[in-house]
Amino acid sequence: MKNQLDEPGGTTRVGGRGGLTAAEVAERVAAGQVNDVPARSSRSVGEIVRSNLFTRINAIIGVLFVIVMIVGPVQDGLFGGVILANTLIGIIQEVRAKRTLDQLAIVGESRPRVWRDGQRVELSASDIVIDDTIDLGQGDKIVVDGTVTSGDNLEVDESLLTGEADPVVKQPGDPVMSGSFVVAGSGTFTATRVGREAYASQLAEEAKRFSLVNSELRNGIDRILKFVTYAIIPAGVALIITQFVVNDDNFSEAIRRMVGGLVPMVPEGLVLLTSLAFAVGVVRLGKKQCLVQELPAIEGLARVDTVCLDKTGTLTEASMDIDEVLQLLPDVPAEAVLGALGAADERPNASLQAIIESYPAPEDWRRTATAPFSSARRWSGASFVEPSGAESAWLLGAPDTMLPAGHSVLTAADSYGARGLRVLLLARCSRPLDVLMEDPAAVPDAVTPAALVVIKQRVRQEAPATLRYFADQGVTAKVISGDNAVSVGAVASSLSLPGAERPVDARFLPEDPRELADAVEENSIFGRVGPQQKRDMVGALQSRGHTVAMTGDGVNDVLALKDADIGVGMGSGSPATRAVAQIVLLNNNFSALPSVVAEGRRVIGNIERVANLFLTKTVYSVLMALVVVIAQVPYPFLPRHITLVGSLTIGIPAFFIALAPNKERARPDFVGRVLRFAIPAGTLAATATSVAYLIARSVYDDNLDAETSAATLALFLTALWALAIIARPYTWWRVLLVLTMAVSFAVVLVVPWLQEFFQLKLVGVAAPWAAVACAAVAGLVLEVVWARMRRRLDAK
Q1: Which of 138, 348, 486, 733 is the most exposed place for a label (fewest CB within 10 A)?
Q2: Annotation says 310 is catalytic
Q3: Are the beta carbons of 319 and 420 closer than 8 angstroms?
């Protein structure tokens, strides 16, 4: 016999139409009436090239390079080649990251269901045209503006656009805006505004992805660059004047010495290596099917100290199995009713999908009304005309929201929940569904329990190891779920989560923000949490100074994901969830989160090390310029010397250090920690070099090349000592890196053609050994200073 659960109409159900024809679509595409605003997950290639090439630092270095090329030999312009090479590396790595990011974004993008030529097809959002008819169901993100053409208890959440948390019921003729999402019911709408005319597109114009706006690391580097700018302007002006006065008989030499003093003041590779480290992180995470939609998320998750986990789909697998059905009313055909309810829902959630797989739709049950599932109500329902002609209405949902407190059935439900099982109540309903949807509080008086549906949830295999990782890293895990608190506590107990023995029913949490913050701070396991409550709990944790990450996969998680410092969505989750999350786990693998934390820590820790080196160079360059100005002597270095020392003690090592493994925990006050090393290290390097230079000037009789060689030796050894400190704790490759740099400099000093190329030759014994002694004293003092500072930092 024919199954009559579905209402008649077939594919022409929308106003007697089956959507646009291919010809009509072609006309609109030709007219430019297409949703041509792609969901950009990264910058264009042109933007990448411009941002890496046309920078303030490159402009400064470029001008100095042109000046040197006019007056000096090519070896004094080596710094220009280094900048070009670094920029090319940055462009190549970022383009590589862009391709990875774009490929992953395509996999994780929302694909609306659109009616075309009488068929419902899945399309990319960018393929939608004006007048397209688009299907809507629970969890769907609305990708263009339009007008509702049909609705079955359709409720839309517009909070991401308007800030209003309450869902809005949509009737035919009502407008819907892009950027909102469906929380209950189903329907269709006709696209009226697409592309840049759509509301969400207009709001998003200034919010491009691939930005580092909220990055503490990038903000810290910007502050450092401002400090550098303020320092080098007066020092640079004074140096320029001094070199023209001191070398008044040799204009070309004055130019070269002046450029030699200005070039090292600019931390040219710091911004580049920061972008490079992030880009490499994107590629590495992309290989693990982890889509980083906003780059600061790599850094942000490494700084998180509290992670809020949704149980279903995160700690447990999204798919479920029916364990048993406990009949409460003997005369009720529970299996047939469950099959009918499953077939009546076009967008079944995980629980209903398990029912559908176990109980096929019965024949000759005609649906007359439906009440879609809502996270706020926590039940769904439908009314039918049964084969006998009798009319009946049924609800399926959470027992503790459908029955009054103390009901005997709740005791049985809790006994299952204590074993970590999910329990749904099938109840006969005595009132119209639309009345109960308007007044959910009337449900307990309107239902008669018919059966308990017990569902098994499978704990993800990777969950225990992932939770142990967070615990070892000092990250507090809190489970925030819409399920029964006892059931959530049982799952948490199986994972050995602290506080699992004290699950909290969120319906009884205080509304006062301070009291709520106390409750959330003191407890770890929460059940029966509503969508707005999840958002409030995230805010409560943030109010206590916590950096919060939120994971989730359903529409009830969207608001909390948006407000959390880092939102982590599942690839199988709703389109709305994926849209607001900064990180999407495309393979739904919870175990990928430690990889994101590790990448963030690698980036933060390594960039801090690199910043120490670059800022040390800036400090000693500024101080050396001041010494030269006060002493009224020629600047001790030519550009080639600075290029050599900078490449061997900063540039080359920094490249390897920035991309190396690093598991150090992220700590606040990035700028403060960098300056605590760079200022004493740069001061000691400048002091050692200045003393060695002045000693050499007293030893040699107007031999500037010999004086420069002695000063270069002192600077290199002191800078190498600073590199050796930054490279700790030592591994084989770090030791090899430091030794390779030392050997490379020694080769320059002993190979004749390199001596001539770099204009470096140690003369005599007194000045070179004095330079070594100055560097050794500076290095020992730096060891003492840094040891004391390190103890203070570790004590905080």
Answers
A1: 733
A2: yes
A3: no
